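Supplementary Methods S3. Input chains for the assembly prediction are listed below.
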Amino acid sequence: MNLGMNVALSMEALLRSDPLVGAAFWSAATVGFYLLAKAVYRRWPRWWLLPLGSTPALLIIAVLLLDTSYSEYIRGTHWLVALLGPAVVAFAVPIYQRRALIRRHWPLLAFGMVVGSATAVASSWGFATLLGLDGALRLSLLPRSISTPFAMTVSSEIGGIPDLTAVFVVMTGVLGAVLGEVVLAWLPLRSTIARGSLFGMGAHGAGTARAYEVGAEEGAIAGLVMVLVGLLNVLLAPLMVIAFARLG
Amino acid sequence: MVLGFWLVGEGVVRLLSLPFPGGLVGLLLLLGLLASGRLRLARVERGAAFLLSDMLLFFVPAALAVLDHREFLSLTGVKILAVILLSTATVMIATALAIDLCYRWMSRHESRNERSPEHGSAAAE
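Predicted structure tokens for the full assembly:
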């Protein structure tokens, strides 16, 4: 017990001594916990072990144990967040690969995405208002259903707090992956498009991973919907700004 | 391959400071190059697969922002959780129902008009 405390204290001192040491340590810890969480999930694929949730949880524990603040942590790991830019560009590849699927089903996909996006924004706003949440917090909740790089962009454009949105996106992904299966068991859905879209629309990346477990085509559709909805929302963000300026 | 892709992405992000996020412009440009046949898919496939399969890692640091918001441990956190759960369920049900009803309507319409079996079976199970 005492030894553990001493180790923690001396590590704290070491991390404070040089910003570069801190940056290297937290970057390594982030990547390390992520790889660990992935390996654990591959071995035991339970929803509460999804790397999406378990990696931040492990890191939060580590940050609290070492008495580090968020600003100290993010200073060292900001370069990882910056990689989201190229990751958005990389979405061009799956879109291109599924061009046949888009060409065949575009009316259905487009219809579902418009209905889904409208429902996402309207229901987030509605439920938040109902429960007495407002201001930047409410705005940060709106782009929650879409994939993080897009969501953070939309959030900052409509006046939310991008970091908070990232937190909500993660929560949505973990909860949505589970919720999707409940909905799937409930609703008598005939088309694979509907089954895939509900995951891609409601729970982005985590949902897509889940949809692949339901079926290969469901997974492909979920991935596609996730990307296209992200794009759609980024393009529509300026319109949302106008709409919410009116609503107050 | 990976490096070539990386440069396309980063270059576009840096060069164009349009009102859209740089990544979006890069995406459209890359999609255009692929569609016009100027760029072979094999050249960017691996780099993109790497970025996308480990995309989760890139936003983990941002999710730790919750540390700066201790108020989430109180009633506000419960409320937020409720909003997320209710809204996500609503979105999923609405999306799935909209598409499924539309799909049923379309396949009924189609079979009455032309009786083409391949269209219906491709999207059904």
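Residues 115-125 of chain B have pLDDT under 50 and may be disordered. Chain B touches chain A through 74 residues (CB under 8 Å).
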